[in-house]
């Protein structure tokens, strides 16, 4: 069994899930905590893709960074979770991009498909109250309970104590393993719209 971990899950719920995970073959997967849902319609058009067609892309903060997970990475994460014994939280090690990069990639993709389309303007509308500039997947308090692997961090229960191979610093989208450039972002957008 696999449980996705969402921000709405309280610490108490997490402790109960972790106890249950020790007695069964299951894992808890922590997706990016503050990701925005970019899919707007059932036909999988991205909001930013639609805005590019309309001529103006609105961004709250162009320097905002977000982690990006491809379908292949999601499948690999689930397969990893199924292969491990329970009792821990898996946090994917992902690339991140600025929203400026995402906007330019969406613009480039739209202009490549429609030669009559002009390059869309980018309008900065300002951050909303409580909106984070960067995503944090592994905070300073959690990192001492985590072990780093090539594609994941495995966060062990607090009751098992700190790890000898703890990750040395918090893991956030402004300090990712990989920064996603324009070409990779174009591939990710194309993959999300297929």
The residue ranges in which pLDDT falls below 50 over 5 or more consecutive positions are 1-14, 21-28, 33-44
Q: Given this structure, which CATH class is correct?
A: Alpha Beta
Q: Report the sheet with the most strands, covering strand number, pairing sense and barrel closure.
A: 5 strands, mixed
* C-alpha geometry: elongated
* Superfamily (CATH H level) name: NAD(P)-binding Rossmann-like Domain
Helicity level: 25-40%
Order of helices and strands: EHEHEEHEEHEEEEEEH
| Helix-strand category | alpha/beta
Percentage of residues in DSSP E strands: 15-25%
Kindly identify the CATH topology: Rossmann fold
Main β-sheet, spatial strand arrangement: 1-2-5-10-9
How many E strands?
A: 12
Task: Please give a structural write-up.
With 194 residues, the protein is α/β, with parallel strands linked by helices. The chain has a single domain (2-193), classed as 3-Layer(aba) Sandwich (Rossmann fold). The chain contains five helices and twelve strands. The protein has helices at residues 11-23, 47-54, 71-83, 99-113, 182-193, and strands at 2-4, 27-29, 56-59, 65-68, 89-92, 95-98, 121-124, 136-138, 146-148, 152-155, 171-172, 178-179. Strands 1-2-5-10-9 form a five-stranded mixed beta sheet, with helices on both faces. A hairpin with a 3-residue loop joins β9 and β10 (152-155). The protein starts with a strand and ends with a helix. Residues 1-14, 21-28 and 33-44 have low confidence and may be disordered.
